[in-house]
Amino acid sequence: MRFPPWRRDPPPEPAPVRLTPHQALNRLELMVVRRLDGLLTGVHLGLLPGPGSEPAETRVYVPGEDDMRRMDWAVTARTTIPHVRDLVADRELETWALVDLSPSMDFGTAAMDKRDLAVAATAALGFLTSRVGDRFGAYVLHGGDIHRWPARPGQAPLHGLLQSIVQAPRTPPRPGAAGLAEALTLLDRGQRRRGLRVVVSDFLDPAGPTAWERPLRRMAMRHQMLAVEIADPRELTLPDVGLVTFADTETGETREVYLSRRVRDAYARAAAAQREAVEAAMRRCGIPHLVLRTDRDWVFDFARFALHQRRVAHLAHRRPQR
Fold this sequence. Notes:
Helix content is 37%, strand content 21%. It has 322 residues and is an alpha/beta fold. It has 2 domains: 54-88, no CATH class; 94-306, Rossmann fold. It has a 6-stranded mixed beta sheet with strand order 5-4-3-6-7-10, sandwiched between helices. Strands 1-2 form a two-stranded antiparallel ribbon. It is globular.
C-alpha cells in the first residue's frame, strides 16, 4: 500500500558541516568582501572618511571656504598673499584593534555568541583595511591578560592573527584581572603613530563607563576612532520564565531570581540606563559608535553605519568653515 504524498515522512535533515577555522575565515572574508567592498573606500583610504594628514601643495586662501588652521604662514609671509596647504589621504595607515574577549563576551542567546560576533567584526575590519595596503594589529584582552599582535600588511599575517583569536580558549573569571581601561591605556601608550583605532567590546565594566571613558577620550585626541559595541537581546530584556539561576561571568557569583513582572521591568530600566550611559560617554569622547547585536544581520548594520558616516563626512566637508 502506498501512502499519499502528503503523508510521507519528511527527508532527514543533513548533518551540519563543521568548518575548520581557516575555512570559516575564508567564508567570512568572501561574505564581507561581497557585501561591503566599495562602500568604505574613497579619497581617504582608511575605514572612515576624512581629510587625511599628509601635507600637499599650497594654494590661495578662499575666505569663507578654507579653514584658517591650514594656513601656511611661511608661504604667506614670502608671497604676502594668504595661502593654505591642502591635505591628502594617508597612503599607508596603521589600524589597531582592541578586541575584548573577557568572560562577559562568552554569552549569547541568538544566532551567535557575543565573542563570535566580536571576532567577525574584527575580521571585517581587517579584511577591509588590508585590501588597501594598511597594516593591521591587535591588542586582545583575554584571560585577564593583554596580548599584543604586531601590525603587519597582507592577508597571511591577518589570517594568522584571526585564527589565534578564534582558537583562544574560554577562560573562567579571575580576581584582579586586567580590565578595558587598562587595555585602552596600554594601547594608547604603546602605539603613538597616528592611524585608526577600533575598540570591539560590550563595554560592560563593573566600575561603570567612567572607568574606560578617560583613556578612550585621551586616545581620541590623537587618532581616528571607532567603537563597536557588541550586545545580546537578553542583556536588554528578560523573558517571563519564572525562577532562574543567574551567573556573573566576570566574578563567577550565582544568584537565584524569580522573574516577576516587577523584576523584569526594573531590569529593563537598568539596562536602558546602562546603554544610555555608554552612548553619552561615546558622544563626550566624540567617537563614532556602532552597535552590533547577535540577533540581527551584523553585515547590514555595518554597511548602513559606514554609509551614514560617509554621508555625514561629505556634508561636513561641503559646509563652509567659519
